[in-house]
Amino acid sequence: MNGHIVADTLPVYLASLVFRKSKLFRESLDSLSYEELLDSITLQWPQIKGEGYYEVSARTPIGELDPAFQVARWKGANYPTVIYHHGNNERPFQRRLTTKNTFHDIFLAGGEPFPANLIVVRAPFHRSFRLYLKHMGRLSTFTTLISVSVKMIEALRQYAAEKRTGTAISGISLGGWVTNLHRAFFNSADLYIPLLAGTVPGDVFTGSVYRKLTDRLALNNPEAVAEALDFEQRFAAVKENNVFPLLARYDQLIRFERQKASYGPNIPVAVIDKGHVTGSAASSALRRHILDHLGSDPAENIGTKDGPAFTVQAPTGKALG
Q1: What is the C-alpha to C-alpha distance for residues 276 and 249, in angstroms, rounded to an integer?
Q2: Each residue of 17-39: pLDDT tens digit?
Q3: Segment holding 170, helix H or strand E
Q4: What mean pLDDT is predicted for residues 124-152?
Q5: Any idea which of 70-79, 119-128, 176-185, 291-300 has the lowest mean pLDDT?
Q6: How many angstroms from the chain centroid is the CA of residue 146?
Q7: What is the CA 297 to chain-centroid distance, rounded?
Q8: 270 or 129, which is more confident
Q9: Sign for the pseudo-dihedral over CA of 238, 241, 244, 249
Q10: Do residues 60 and 172 make contact, with C-beta atoms less than 8 angstroms apart?
Q11: Which residues is 44 bridged to in the sheet?
Q12: Are 117 and 76 in contact (CB under 8 A)?
C-alpha cells in the first residue's frame, strides 16, 4: 500500500469512528431527479458590485438554503472568467491552517497572477463539516445541494457573458461533479475542466472507501443511490469537445478506473500519479492543467459561446507529476 492510498483511507476510517451516528443517507433514499430539482430551484440573486462576497438565498423543495460566491478577482473583458467550485468539506472563503481551500492554493497562492477573472462558489451546508453531516441524512439533501450549485454556476456564467468574457467551469471532487453536471444539463460554458471527478458520484458512496461514512440503508440499495446521483448517459449525450478532465491514478474515493470509464471512449483524461488527498494538494499540477486548456495568451481568450473564445490546447495524454 503506497502513501497516496494511506492518505486517502486513514482519514475516512477515523471519521467513520467519530461520526458513526451521523452516516450519510441514514434516513431516506428518496429524491427528485436532477431535472426536476433544476426546474424547481429559484435563486434570489444579489446585485454584483465588483469584487467581494455575496450571499444567495436558494428556494428549493427541501427549504431555503444558503449558497454564496466570491468574485475574488476581476481583471476585465480582456480575460476569460474561471468559475470554480470547491471540494467536499472545504471552506473556500477561509484561509487557515486547519481548513482546506483548493481555490486559494490553485489560483491565488504563489507564482504569477492567474490570467483570468476568478469566481468561486460555496455550496450549501459548507460552513462546517458537522453541519454538513447533520443535514446529509437524506439523499434528497445531497442532490439538492449539487443542483443549487449548478444553478449558481449558470447564473454566474450568464453574468460573465454580460461582461463579454468567455467562461471556463472548473471544480475539484464535489466541485468536479457540479462542473460535469452543469455540462450535462446546460453546456453553456466555453470549457469544462473537472478535477478528480467523473459522472458517477454514486460509486463514491457505495463502492469506494468512502462507503465507511455511508449508512447501511444506502449500502444495501446501491441501485437507488446510483439512480439518484449518476448522470453518465446524460453527460455522454453532449457531443462537443469542450471537457478536459483530470483524475488521480491512486484515488481511493473517486476510483480511477470507474470514473475514467464514465467519460466514455472519446474524452481524453489527464492522469496525475497521486491519490485523492495528495492530488488535491498538488496545486501546481492542477493549476498547470487548467492553464493548459485556457491557452497561454489571455488576449486570445476573449469571447462567448456564440463567438471566438478560448484557445484550447490538445491534451497530450501524459501523466502529470
Answers
A1: 9
A2: 988 888 999 999 999 999 999 99
A3: strand 167-172
A4: 89
A5: 291-300
A6: 9
A7: 25
A8: 270
A9: positive
A10: no
A11: 57
A12: yes
Please list, in sequence order, all residues whose beta carbon lies within 8 angstroms of the beta carbon of residue 208, skipping any fewer than 6 positions away: 252, 253, 254, 255
The pTM of the full predicted model, rounded to 2 decimals, is: 0.90
Percent of the chain's residues with pLDDT above 90: 79
pLDDT level of residue 1 (50, 70, 90 thresholds): low
| Helix pair angle (222-229, 139-162), 10° resolution | 20
Rg (C-alpha) for the chain, rounded Å, is 18
- List the 117-122 sheet strands across, edge first: 52-55, 68-73, 117-122, 81-85, 167-172, 191-195, 246-248, 270-272, 319-320
Q: Is pLDDT at 62 greater than 50 in this prediction? A: yes
Bridge partner residues of 171 (DSSP): 85, 194
Q: What mean pLDDT, rounded, does the chain reach?
A: 89
Sheet holding 57-60, edge to edge: 42-44, 57-60, 63-65
Q: Following CA atoms 108, 114, 117, 123 in sequence, which dihedral angle do they give, to the nearest 10 degrees?
A: -40
